[in-house]
Design goal:
This protein has 15 helices and 14 strands. The protein has helices at about 5-20, 20-35, 40-55, 70-85, 100-115, 115-120, 180-195, 220-225, 255-265, 265-270, 345-355, 370-385, 400-410, 420-430, 440-450; strands at about 60-65, 90-95, 135, 140-145, 165-170, 205-210, 235, 290, 300-305, 320-325, 330-340, 360-365, 390-395, 415. A hairpin with a 5-residue loop joins strand 3 (about 135) and strand 4. Helix 13 (about 400-410) crosses helix 15. The termini are far apart.
Length: about 475
């Protein structure tokens, strides 16, 4: 419980809260909850960044932060309420992945404006109506809340004048359990481009995005990669700081974070580290690969597994991974062919690679579904006459197909021959399954499955499974 303050102390607190968002947030939290806010240094960093937005020093801001680290309280509820106190006619659009959540946040801002302590700080800001999601102030200020993908008709954010006049505030545009869907994720980005951005009343209207990272190509990743052609200021807050200490030890101790990371490394990498592609500990642990300068001596069973693309200069890669099984049970990745090629270039790559590898290297090729896939593999097998070729449809998802190989990599049972292709493969393993490409891993998974297969490979020119 907090001790009561006399009139002079409350007046001083109101003056400080009016001048500084961070103090305002602390003061209003205490007045509403009647106990002190368990604040942390990152709260000041967020407030300082938002103050720069208010002062016009930053027009595009991305804040990446773990869930439940006060992001909505500060960037939505406190910032909008504080800014409306400064500029009662400011116009805001607020969005989140859920229209219900956005509406709840809007209602929280409205409730804050009605609090006695708020009125002591900002006398001129009063509500004009009691609506929950879309309400106005008596000065003409606007608060419009909607879910990502929702319509925004008749509302805009900001003012056609110098100085702060409102903003677009986006809080977690992606739902965590939907962020892996390329279709849903792309839909959010498309909505941002074609609907939300057009709701700026002025080019000077700031946009603030605050979210946990969920995918390499989520909205934050797309924007930071230059997706909409604008430069974004980036405040990236990892649960683990650079010095190895917790960002908010009162919330999550070092032991808590270690346990959470061990239990769900992929989720932790995105949501808590803000790196939606685990450095180690996801499906693959590429740090366990031993790089060697030469292929070990002795008898080795070889297979070159392929993942096929068909677009010249863009799109999916064609990748051919050469994998060997050693007599001691270990495996060695001895080569990688990879290029974005059209059908003619792709076929030439398969043919020329087979000639270099020699006939002792089996070849594994995926068969696409349908008659077109059957026709394609028949043509490829005929082209590779004289080599041992096995074709089959892909079964299961990419992760399921990769897990047997990943298990061998993760226990240190896979070597890698030193080569210029190493870095790209390691990066793909590190990102998998959340990276933009998985062609090298798909090829390796096929080669690994072929080497473990108990059945004899199908000789080129003989009958092929599925034909």
């Amino acid at each position: 419980m907090l001790a009561p303050l006399d009139d002079r102390e409350r007046f001083a607190a109101a003056e400080l809260a009016r001048a500084d968002l961070y103090f305002f947030s602390r003061w209003m939290f205490a007045q509403r909850r009647v106990y002190r806010w368990q604040r942390a240094p990152h709260h000041r960093l967020i407030c300082d960044a938002l103050m720069r937005v208010f002062r016009g020093e930053c027009k595009r801001l991305i804040i990446n932060i773990p869930p439940r680290y006060s992001k909505t309280e500060l960037a939505v509820v406190m910032f909008i309420a504080w800014a409306l106190g400064q500029v009662p006619d400011a116009e805001f659009i607020h969005t989140s992945y859920s229209s219900t959540l956005a509406g709840n946040n809007s209602a929280a801002v409205r409730a804050l404006l009605q609090h006695e302590a708020y009125r002591e700080i900002f006398h001129a800001t009063t509500l004009a109506d009691e609506a929950r999601s879309h309400w106005t102030t008596t000065a003409g200020g606007v608060m419009y809340a909607t879910g990502a993908g929702g319509t925004i008709t008749g509302f805009g954010a900001g003012k056609h004048r110098p100085g702060f006049g409102g903003a677009i505030i986006i809080d977690d545009p992606h739902k965590a359990d939907e962020a892996r869907s390329d279709v849903i994720r792309a839909g959010v980005i498309d909505w941002f481009q074609n609907t939300l951005e057009s709701r700026k009343n002025s080019p000077e209207t700031p946009i603030v995005l605050i979210m946990q990272r969920l995918h390499e190509k989520d909205l934050a990743g797309w924007l930071l990669g230059g997706g909409n052609g604008e430069a974004w200021e980036h405040l990236c807050l990892s649960a683990w700081q650079d010095d190895g200490t917790p960002l908010w030890p009162e919330k999550h101790s070092a032991a808590d974070l270690q346990r959470m990371e061990a239990a769900a490394p992929y989720t932790f990498a995105g949501q808590y580290r803000q790196r939606p592609s685990p450095l180690e500990g996801g499906v693959f642990k590429p740090g366990r690969l031993e790089t060697v300068g030469a292929v070990p001596s002795g008898r080795i069973e070889w297979c070159r597994g392929w993942d096929l693309g068909a677009t010249d200069g863009g799109g999916a890669f064609t990748a051919g991974a050469k994998l060997g099984k050693l007599t001691d049970g270990r495996f060695i990745i001895a080569g990688m062919e990879r290029a974005q090629l059209g059908p003619d270039g792709r076929d030439a790559l398969l043919r020329n690679t087979a000639a270099r590898d020699g006939r002792e290297v089996r070849i594994g090729i995926p068969q696409d579904p349908g008659q077109a896939g059957k026709t394609q593999v028949l043509a490829l097998v005929r082209m590779l006459a004289g080599f041992t070729v096995k074709t089959s449809p892909e079964t299961g998802d990419k992760v399921t197909r990769a897990e047997p190989l990943a298990a061998q990599v993760n226990v240190g049972n896979v070597l890698m021959l030193k080569g210029t292709w190493n870095e790209a493969l390691i990066e793909e393993m590190r990102l998998f399954p959340n990276g933009q490409f998985s062609d090298q891993i798909d090829g390796l998974s096929r080669a690994f499955a072929e080497l473990l297969s108990a059945s004899d490979p199908t000789p080129a020119g003989a009958s092929i499974q599925g034909l």
